Amino acid sequence: MAAALGGGPPNPSGAHRAARHAAAVLDAARHEIAGALGVSPRHVVLTGGGTESCALALLGVRRPSAVCVSTIEHVAVRRSAEVAASRSGVALIELPVDADGRLDVDMALDLVPDGALVSVMAANNETGVVQPVGELARRLRADRRIVLHSDAIAAASTRSLVDVATSVDLCSIAAHKVGGPPGVGVLVVPEDLDLEPVIPGGAQERGLRAGTQDVAGAAGMAAALTATDRERREGAVEVLARRRDVLGHALARIEGVTITGARVDRLAGHLHLTFPGLRSEEALLLLDRSGVAASAGAACASGAPQASHVLLAMGMDEHRARSAIRLTLGVDTPEAAWDRLAIVLPEVLGSLVGGGRGVG
User: Which long-range contacts (CB under 8 A, 24 or more apart) does 83-87 make?
Assistant: First the structure.
């Protein structure tokens, strides 16, 4: 990113030498991002983050017959879907998930009409459960015309996105989820798909996202995606999943603790658990005091904790849903941190669940 800023004003739209330097850096970043996603560089549309990418996908599709989203989508997709359905005067249809938090493809096929805009995430940002986007794409397209979007933002940190990006029409990712800079995102858009710009103006990004591009941010995103791919090829993600599972097994020995999505494919760095008998904010406070940064679920604007819509959609009762704890770990989480987690988490959770003791 520092090198990208080294050629003068980072505006790639001019004709002078500094602009040509910036344009070359931007072009190289676009090609690198496209390579990581398995798509043409012409399909890479840079945005100001993941939320904007999702908004462009949901609000940009012209005249859908309905807007269909899974019940576990991120608020960035849910809110944009509500606006898109309202503006187009069509139904907003929610596609259910099973008790493991995985999309019910058979029910989706019954609910999605011909000509619909459909959005299903590649993996859930809370539970880490991987969604059957490829299967959904194949079966829906067998007998109807649809536009399919996938929010792959959470999945990008540990999964190859080639299969997702090449099986859907629109795919959203965000740089900060793969260790890149915040405020930079991408929407994969094929050239034959006619989208309405959310930010109109100049001709940047094929006219789909006007405004001077963040050249250094694009370079940072490209570097982060390349590093993520390298980590996966070298086996670091497999090691992460094994460590996550060892920690999960230890926590599951505490009476009442349940690992969410343990029976299905999950992102390697996600460990989501529930434990009835207390509210998650109690555990989060104690974990924070012990140096562990964890999270629970959604919160309303006032800051009062709410039960996660994801967990409620899975059929979990509100009492258990309000006891959720989510840990997201990375391939660069140091050995000392794993050792610390193995001590602190069982101690804290064990002390809270029925006044029991932690496990070693």
Answer: 83/58, 83/59, 84/58, 84/59, 84/117, 87/59
